[in-house]
Every structure is written in C-alpha cells, then in structure tokens.
Here is the input.
Amino acid sequence: MRSIDFVVARNDLQHCKTVETTLPGADALPAETLLIKVDRFAFTANNITYALLGDQLKYWQLFPAPAGFGIIPVWGFGEVIASKHPLVGEGERLFGTFPMATHLVIEASDVSQRGLRDAAPHRQGVAAVYNAYARVGSDDAFAGHRGDQQALLRPLFMLSFLVDDYLAENDVFGAAAIILSSASSKTAFGLAHLLHAQRDGVRVIGLTSPANAAFVRALGCYDEVVSYDGIELLDTASPSVFVDMAGNAELRARLHRHLGDHLKQSIRVGMTHQDSESDPASLPGAKPVWFFAPDQIRKRAKEWGPGGIESRLGAAWQGFAPMLERSLTIVEGRGPDVVQRVYLDTLSGRIPPEQGHMLSMTD
Here is the structure.
C-alpha cells in the first residue's frame, strides 16, 4: 500500500510537493498497529505556526519525511481500515493529529473506551496532546458540520482557553485593556470571545488589517477595532496587556514604544506573519514572553484533576459554538492540487477570515 504525502521544505515553506511512501499491507502490519485512512483535516494559519516552530517544538518529528522536508501536522478525522490491535476494530473513526497524507500507521497504546495514543518512538518527546486520538464514531459532537467545526477550531479554542486562563490566573496583570493582534485569526477571536464574556471592566481591543476590519467588528467580541496603521492612536493612559497572535516584530516594537511602561505584559502566542526577528533589549514596557500551552496544561491537569480541563473547556466551547454558526463558512476541498493551493494561500495570507478549510489528500 502507498500513501500520498504533502511535504514542505523546512528551510523554504514556499517549496512544497507530494511524495509517495510505502506502507505495510493489512496482512503485514505488526502487532497492535493500526492502518488509518486520513479522511479529512482542517487547515488554518495555526498550521503555518506549526511549520515555523517545527524544529523548536519538535513538530517535524511527528511524521517522518524525506531529508530536508517536513509534514505539517493537522487536526482531523481518520478511519481504521486495518487493525492488529484486539481492542480496535476496522471502521473505527478517530479524531486527532494526522499528517497531510492519505494514510497513517500508528502503534496503538493505552487503548480505552474514549481513545488511544500512538506509541511510535519518533512521536515521543512531543506534547502528549499531539499523540492522542479520540474514538468518536458514535459522538454526535463530531458528526457532520459540528465535526468540521471541532476540527477547525477546537484545537485553536483550546489555546484561546488556556491563554484566557493564564490571564485570569494573573488578574490580567492589572490591565484595563487587552490588545490582540491578528484579531481576525480564529485563535484571537476565540480568546476575545472568552475575555469579552468573562472579564468585566476590561476592554478587548483587536488589531487587524483594514481589509479584515469589517469582519472583526461583526464578530461582536471586540470593544474596539483598530487597524495596524492606527496603533499610535491607542490610549496610552490605561494599563494594558498585549497578546501577540501575529508575531510581527515591527508591529510589536511600535506598540511597545507607544504604550511604554503602561504595557504590563506582552505575550507571544502565534506567528501568522512568519516573522522570526528577535526583540531589541531596549524595548519599553514588559519584556515579550512566549506562552507555551503544554506548561499551562500540565499545571491545570495537576490542580484540577482528571477531566478538569476537558469539562471546563467543554463548557466554554458550548458558549463559543453559536458564534461559529454565524461567522464561519466551511469550505471543502479534495485532492493534492487543492491542498497545495489552500496551503500556499494560507502561507501568503490570502484566505478570507470567514473561511474555514476542510481538506483531504484523496480525490
């Protein structure tokens, strides 16, 4: 059996292609392994962040690729088409992290009624969430349109939820305003929704491009929307926190210099602008720091106990889902050519913010 894999050059993300890899047939599968057909997966700007941080956070090691290339991890659905594990049958539907490919072989471990994980050696050393698969065959929350919403936004909303939790834990650093860059991004407006709904007395300000300003205003979760060329008009008298989803060093420096000591915390979360420049040591205000979600997950898992994160996230998601119905259009695409086009459009920032793409490498 062969898998068609979509790979990108690790040192030049514009360079991409498809390759074929040989997989063991059903009869040749080792014990306790599963052969999975990758059915459909979400692709967003967050996947570009995975590529940009592929070496730093070990995302490239999740799915082996030819030398110099990498396979970007994506969130989606797969169907077990052959199984050598006694507790997992053919036809089982799984949700989790997959390669941009037609097929995947995993070493099923820790199999329970709710899920399993891949114990393949090359997938260890990465945050556990990227090796976990939920068994969702009979779960209505993962069926049809709602399943696509889960694939597109549940992983991003998890990040929004964790950043909101981090801010709440620190009493929003005494800020009266929280400023989000790349305000049209799905992680940003998920966070804005949580902040707007739960942080009374704190203004939520979205920074965005003029082209996306109308969409951001229509979301209804920002108290103020400011275009990037209007940063210097922001109020400098209020203590503020900056949550940087864009990763644009020039933008970050402008905001720091404008707000000065009134900028109480500067948190780097995303890299939608693919800017790897470091910040000058003399930058005014709080020193920019990276938010690392697995650290917050480990902390809360210990404090909240088994199921604590999942129950709180589920409750938050229920409040967020209605917003998706009115603001997100799901666009489906199949085949390597379509996958390549959506990938390059996302890399270049050409995807309209109201679109969410569900893709498959299978025509």
